[in-house]
Amino acid sequence: MRCPYCGFTDSRVVDSRLNELGDVTRRRRECLNCGRRFTTFEKVDEIPLTVIKKNGEREPFSRNKLLDGILRALVKRQVSRERAEQIVDEIEASLRNDFKREVTSKELGEMVLRQLRDIDKVAYIRFASVYREFKDLEEFTQELKKLK
Ligand SMILES: [Zn+2]
């Protein structure tokens, strides 16, 4: 990133944050030559985020896929699609903020569950049963108990 004041090409990042939509990273940089500060904006979709599935396969992170999973858990619940999209936004922003390049599907699932737990208990259990693949009724019951 070239310094707009002196043209030097090396700078250090002093601050880094996402915009509200979570798709643009704003970076405050300090030129290593003249010490002046400038701001750059980088579209985060330039940094691919990869999801590592349980079987070890990798696939690009897909907002739609994540949203679909959440909407499926929310069928006939009193939670709007906007709220579901907000969950996806928050998760993506949090991953982008940590500058993650890879995330396991398990981590993703747990992130969704943390949000659903506070929003809708039924959706939480539905989502958990898909993501955690409860082996038996016992495990499922344990999860229900934790909610109480
Ligand atoms: Zn400079």
What labels would you give this structure?
148 residues; alpha+beta; three-stranded antiparallel sheet; three-stranded mixed sheet; 6 strands; binds zinc ion
Characterization of this structure:
- By secondary structure, the chain is of the alpha+beta class.
- The chain has two domains: 11-45; 47-147.
- The chain has helices at 63-73, 81-97, 105-119, 121-131, 137-147; strands spanning 11-18, 24-31, 37-43, 50-52, 58-60, 102-104.
- Strands 1-2-3 form a three-stranded antiparallel beta sheet. It has a three-stranded mixed beta sheet with strand order 5-4-6.
- α1 (63-73) packs across α2 (81-97), α1 crosses α4 (121-131) and α3 packs antiparallel against α4.
- The chain is elongated, with a radius of gyration of 20 Å.
- The mean pLDDT is 85.
- Bound molecules: zinc ion.
